[in-house]
């Protein structure tokens, strides 16, 4: 057995591993930035088109915000990964008040990727927020699509979430 | 592999080159490469120190590549070729003694030598290797799997490395920046656990190298990175959490800049806290405490990063902290580093939450350090403002704005505003009129105060009025002044408004620079938000230049492709197409030149203003007989350093102008020293 082969199979020191790792895909993976399972059904009939846009997008959907999260807080947090071009707060379709989600658009894709890698899954206003790629902002996407004007998730959740108006809408309407 | 090494060096890929050299060294340990040929290669490396007319950083790298491989292969090389090695050693030592170290103060995180000296990286490595030599090359930390196979390996055929000549220095060669080794812990900080290797022990070097390597490999995936760090082999023999925290802070505080984006370190530390909830948070708290204690001598740029890190970190833990432990800052001069730090941290915490929350999280004794409620200040708002000039116009404007007036309607309301600067208006009608700017900007910003989006809409809707009022340089400055008066309680709003005004070309970068150094801002001159605005402004300028340069390159390439196609097809009709493209290239060329000139001017303005205020301070201290080293002075001179460090690549282009025009020999030595340190960085 060649000496080289033996070296590859033994546990190398971290520095040799780095050299080998330059050739190993695992150490260059960027799994945080991959697309999620969400497809926007209302606006794009063609998933392939949507996927292309998502891979170039500089816009993020941000979810699980408290209803009290302000534009200022979102600006401060998301500025840590780069210059923000625009923030569009999500609104209740009927009341037009802030409703726990927003869109953040960056000038560069790299800055948006940094947000997905380092701001996704961290806290804002004591809640762990989540981000997802968005194919691009179009008018009326800032309104929730839930039946009562908010987001779908707020129609259904059974538990009490003080930051999102208490019990889910459907659960509430069922209460006498 | 030797070819790969040469290619990496030519491509300025020094990280890869160092790993290649180490890998080759390990191959010597495996008896794959003959030791004498490795010694010969190192001889060639160290002979670079004899080269003349090359940057010191070039010689430094070759010495570093040699020394940093010795923990791996020193023993083997010394056993086979001790005389030659001694010679190489002597050459290295004499080089290290004669190399200049002017750049060191600029790169140190702390200016104090206690409790741990902040050593230049080659000095530290030399001390570590000398100790290793004295210990007869006994090194127990590196994994050496080949030892288990020694009996087979030593029978294998050995190869000689081909002779290696370091690629020559070229104009395009860019060598790694020198570094200062960051040390914050020693064995006394963890009395109960395993002993931390000393600062000059080779174990310390190897552990730190390995941990930095893990971060370098996995920084894009924070969970993997954290997992790899905490499962470091041999972790039971060392206080691993202390090493990890020290290595992460070393990167975060590295000057000129951290290797990776700042926010990565925040999330990495939080992932580590999640993985080791019983041990790591305590080490992190201990580290925070130590950093706080040593704020007095910490470089201002590093303090900025400490503020940003700590406030963001706290926001993930409901802002829980034992603020009372820091009550000592309450009795100090509010401009000194500790109270300043706490004030800035609380301001940043407020940006991530809200004003009342901050009042709630600190003890009542800290209320003096709490940020102001970020409300808008409208001068025409109350009864007493009736007597102010322009008051009636302001009311008129307010009504107009609320009824969705157009730009033209606003212009006609403003036409009647008298100009306090002159008795009669020019024929132009819209020369610099500070009162017009005042009533317009105050009223509009006040009405749009509800949120950033409202303010941005206002700027967009009345862009035409803004552009006209701010046409002159004085106009631009006044717009910024008035905006600052309205929003002085809300630094975050000021920052986003300045950003938008630059992007929509209501003001230009030079106006922002002049505004920052103006007397209106002198009270807030040492506050963090001011410098964030200035550096953001410079970055926008730099990005703008790059963007137009790219457009020009693309147009040139398009033309070249068209020419090639024409010579291939022999098509005469594309002459006309060429003309349009050539015109576009000419226009872009002009645009690039104008942008580059604006960029250079921005830096010159900034340096000039720094020199002016610093000289003023130094002269005043000399006449009064007081000490130069006030907190303000330390802050200001380090802000000047920060300009050089954060934008060093661009500034390198202006060295000749700076030397001849601004940083001349007549300048006060305190200020000139900063420039000299900067020159030494790539000298």
UniProtKB/TrEMBL annotation, chain A:
One Gene Ontology cellular component annotation? nuclear cap binding complex
According to its UniProt record, which protein family does this protein belong to? Belongs to the RRM NCBP2 family.
Primary role: Component of the cap-binding complex (CBC), which binds co-transcriptionally to the 5' cap of pre-mRNAs and is involved in various processes such as pre-mRNA splicing, translation regulation, nonsense-mediated mRNA decay, RNA-mediated gene silencing (RNAi) by microRNAs (miRNAs) and mRNA export. The CBC complex is involved in mRNA export from the nucleus, leading to the recruitment of the mRNA export machinery to the 5' end of mRNA and to mRNA export in a 5' to 3' direction through the nuclear pore.
Q: Which GO terms describe its biological process?
A: mRNA cis splicing, via spliceosome; mRNA transport; nuclear-transcribed mRNA catabolic process, nonsense-mediated decay; regulatory ncRNA-mediated gene silencing
Q: How does it assemble?
A: Component of the nuclear cap-binding complex (CBC), a heterodimer composed of ncbp1/cbp80 and ncbp2/cbp20 that interacts with m7GpppG-capped RNA.
Name by which UniProt lists this protein = Nuclear cap-binding protein subunit 2
Q: Which PROSITE patterns match?
A: RRM (PS50102)
> Keywords for this entry?
mRNA processing, mRNA splicing, mRNA transport, Nonsense-mediated mRNA decay, Nucleus, RNA-binding, RNA-mediated gene silencing, Transport
Read off the Gene3D superfamilies from this record: 3.30.70.330
Localization of this protein: Nucleus
SUPFAM superfamilies, per this entry? RNA-binding domain, RBD (SSF54928)
Reading the lineage from the top rank, the first entry is Eukaryota
Q: Which organism is it from?
A: Physeter macrocephalus
From TrEMBL, chain B:
Q: Region entry Disordered: which residue ranges?
A: 559-578
Q: Which residues form the signal peptide?
A: none
Pfam families given in the database record: MIF4G, MIF4G_like, MIF4G_like_2
Keyword vocabulary terms for this entry = mRNA capping, mRNA processing, mRNA splicing, Nucleus, RNA-mediated gene silencing
SUPFAM superfamilies registered for this protein in UniProt: ARM repeat
> Which InterPro entries would you find in this protein's record?
ARM-type_fold, CBP80, MIF4G-like_typ-1, MIF4G-like_typ-2, MIF4G-like_typ-3
Location within or outside the cell: Nucleus
Q: Which GO terms describe its biological process?
A: 7-methylguanosine mRNA capping; mRNA export from nucleus; nuclear-transcribed mRNA catabolic process, nonsense-mediated decay; regulation of mRNA processing; regulatory ncRNA-mediated gene silencing; RNA splicing
Enumerate the spans annotated as MIF4G domain: 5-133
* MIF4G-like type domain residues: 218-363, 378-652
User: What does the similarity note say?
Assistant: Belongs to the NCBP1 family.
Task: Kindly provide the name given to this protein in its UniProt entry.
Answer: Nuclear cap-binding protein subunit 1 isoform X2
Recorded source organism is Tursiops truncatus (Atlantic bottle-nosed dolphin)
Taxonomic lineage is: Eukaryota, Metazoa, Chordata, Craniata, Vertebrata
Source gene? Answer: NCBP1
């Amino acid at each position: 057995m060649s000496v080289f082969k033996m070296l590859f199979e033994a546990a190398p020191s971290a520095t040799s591993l780095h050299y080998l790792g330059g050739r190993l895909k695992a150490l260059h993976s960027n799994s945080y930035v991959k697309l999620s399972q969400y497809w926007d059904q209302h606006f794009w009939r063609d998933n392939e088109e949507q996927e292309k846009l998502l891979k170039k997008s500089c816009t993020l959907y941000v979810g699980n915000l408290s209803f009290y999260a302000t534009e200022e807080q979102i600006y401060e947090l998301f500025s840590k990964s780069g210059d923000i071009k625009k923030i569009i707060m999500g609104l209740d379709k009927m009341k037009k008040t802030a409703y726990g989600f927003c869109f953040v658009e960056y000038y560069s894709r790299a800055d948006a990727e940094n947000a997905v890698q380092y701001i996704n899954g961290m806290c804002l206003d004591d809640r762990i927020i989540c981000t997802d790629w968005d194919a691009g902002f179009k008018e009326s996407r800032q309104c929730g699509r839930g039946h009562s004007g908010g987001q779908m998730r707020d129609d259904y959740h059974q538990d009490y979430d003080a930051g999102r108006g208490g019990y889910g809408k459907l659960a509430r309407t069922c209460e006498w | 592999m030797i070819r790969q090494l040469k290619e990496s060096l030519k491509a300025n890929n020094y990280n890869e080159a160092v790993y290649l050299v180490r890998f080759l060294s390990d191959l010597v340990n495996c008896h794959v490469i003959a030791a004498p040929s490795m010694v010969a290669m190192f001889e060639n490396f160290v002979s670079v120190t004899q080269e003349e007319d090359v940057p010191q950083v070039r010689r430094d790298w070759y010495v570093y590549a040699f020394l940093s491989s010795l923990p791996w292969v020193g023993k083997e090389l010394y056993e086979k070729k001790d005389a030659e090695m001694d010679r190489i050693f002597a050459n290295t030592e004499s080089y290290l003694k004669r190399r200049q170290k002017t750049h060191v103060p600029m790169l140190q995180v702390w200016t104090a030598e206690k409790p741990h000296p902040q050593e230049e990286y080659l000095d530290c490595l030399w001390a570590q290797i000398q100790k290793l030599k004295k210990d007869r090359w006994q090194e127990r930390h590196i994994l050496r799997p080949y030892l288990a196979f020694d009996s087979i390996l030593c029978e294998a055929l050995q190869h000689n490395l081909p002779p290696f000549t370091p690629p020559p220095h070229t104009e395009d060669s860019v060598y790694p920046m020198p570094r200062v080794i960051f040390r914050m812990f020693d064995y006394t900080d963890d009395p109960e656990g395993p002993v931390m290797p000393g600062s000059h022990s080779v174990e310390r070097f190897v552990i730190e190298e390995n941990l930095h390597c893990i971060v370098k490999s996995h920084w894009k995936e924070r969970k993997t990175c954290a997992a790899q760090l905490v499962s470091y082999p041999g972790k039971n023999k060392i206080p691993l959490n202390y090493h990890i925290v020290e290595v992460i802070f070393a990167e975060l505080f590295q000057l000129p800049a951290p290797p990776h984006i700042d926010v990565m370190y925040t999330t990495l530390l939080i992932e580590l806290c999640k993985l080791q909830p019983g041990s790591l948070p305590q080490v992190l708290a201990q580290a925070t405490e130590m950093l706080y204690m040593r704020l007095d001598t910490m470089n201002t740029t590093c303090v900025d990063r400490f503020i940003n890190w700590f406030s963001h970190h706290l926001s993930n833990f409901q802002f829980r902290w034992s603020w009372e432990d820091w009550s000592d800052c309450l009795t100090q001069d509010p401009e000194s580093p500790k109270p300043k730090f706490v004030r800035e941290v609380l301001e940043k915490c407020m940006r991530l939450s809200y004003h009342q929350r901050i009042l709630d999280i600190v003890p009542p004794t800290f209320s003096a350090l709490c940020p102001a409620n970020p409300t808008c200040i409208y001068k025409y708002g109350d009864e007493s403002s009736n007597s102010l000039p322009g008051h009636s116009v302001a009311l008129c404007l307010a009504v107009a704005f609320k009824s969705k007036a157009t730009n033209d309607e606003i212009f006609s309301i403003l036409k009647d505003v008298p100009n306090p600067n002159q008795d009669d208006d020019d024929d132009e009608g819209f020369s610099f009129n500070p009162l017009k700017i005042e009533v317009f900007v105050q009223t509009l910003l006040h009405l749009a105060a509800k949120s950033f989006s409202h303010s941005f809409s206002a700027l967009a809707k009345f862009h035409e009025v803004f552009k006209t009022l701010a046409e002159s340089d004085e106009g631009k400055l006044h717009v910024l002044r008035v905006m600052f008066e309205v929003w002085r309680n809300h630094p975050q709003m000021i920052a986003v408004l300045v950003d938008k005004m630059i992007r929509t070309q209501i003001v230009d970068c030079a106006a922002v620079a002049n505004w920052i150094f103006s007397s209106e801002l002198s009270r807030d001159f040492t506050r963090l938000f001011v410098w964030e605005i200035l550096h953001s402004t410079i970055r926008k300028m730099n990005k703008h230049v790059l963007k137009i340069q790219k457009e020009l390159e693309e147009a040139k390439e398009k033309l070249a492709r068209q020419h090639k196609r024409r010579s291939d097809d022999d098509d005469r009709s594309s002459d006309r197409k060429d003309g349009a493209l050539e015109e576009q290239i000419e226009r872009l060329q002009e645009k690039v030149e104008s942008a580059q000139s604006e960029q250079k001017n921005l830096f010159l303005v900034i340096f000039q203003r720094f020199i002016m205020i610093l000289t003023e301070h130094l002269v005043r201290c000399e006449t009064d007989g007081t000490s130069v080293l006030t907190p303000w002075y330390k802050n200001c001179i380090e802000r000047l350093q920060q300009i050089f460090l954060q934008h060093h690549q661009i500034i390198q282009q202006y060295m000749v102008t700076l030397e001849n025009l601004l940083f001349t020999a007549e300048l006060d030595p305190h200020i000139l020293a900063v420039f000299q340190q900067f020159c030494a960085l790539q000298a």
